[in-house]
Give the backbone structure.
Amino acid sequence: MRVTLLGTGAADGWPNPWCTCASCADARAAGTTRRQTSVLVDGGVLLDLSPALPPDGVSLAGVHTVLITHAHPDHCAPFALLWRHWVRPDDPLTVVGPADALATCEPWLAPDAPVELVAVTPGGTVRRRGYEVRALPADHEVPAVLYDVAGPDGGRLLYATDTGPLPEAAVEAVRDAAFDVVLLEETFGDVRDHDTRHLDLGTFPEQLDRLRAVGAVTGATDVVAVHLGHHNPPAAQLAARLAEHGARVLPDGAELHAGAYRRRSWNSDASAAPA
Ligand SMILES: [Zn+2]
Ligand SMILES: [Zn+2]
């Protein structure tokens, strides 16, 4: 499984283009722009429909399945479907997400477009082209899901944004998952009184502990913090703080190679009959 980080930033990116705080100034001085969080798996499965263009050199032409976590506009920017329609009007596409997110996509689709909208709720499973995708519950302001994606080569990814502390049902659902890659949101840094359904530097390590306790995160799991906003300390400090918890920060455009040929521990017969 090849995981390309298209964006690793919060709703407003990092730096926020309107902000002059120390964290934004540091990012600007370093020339580091973090787009809204979105990820491409094997060039074909797109997690979240970002309002941002992909990093330089990255194409979305091979995308056959889009997994949308929720309807907030940093994760569900359906204008992007029109960009696709202008060049690939006849190519089939599956768009998966909560029903209210899909409803915002519908007006952007041509009436006869070969785009299939598949509504999911927590616990639901979708199979496409050898990928088995499970929607897990999130704790967010609107209906939202996290995604557990198992690829045809055995790699397995947890995409966990946006959410506050994980619902117990989400932790239980990934017991013994031994993910190759976990992308977990860490929006607010040292701001702990944000009073939103997001994680910060206090709650992020607590969620990792919970995931480790059930075998979802192991010593072999690559944990990367995403949905990073400017309330975080400057990047070098943030990287050091997260390293204490076994997590990394990576720039937009980074590529991870995970779990080639590792056998899945759950539902292994699904790989024999990809839909
Ligand atoms: Zn968000
Ligand atoms: Zn959100």
Observations:
- The first strand starts at residue 2 and ends at 7.
- Confidence is low (pLDDT under 50) at residues 260-275.
- DSSP finds six helices and 14 strands in the chain.
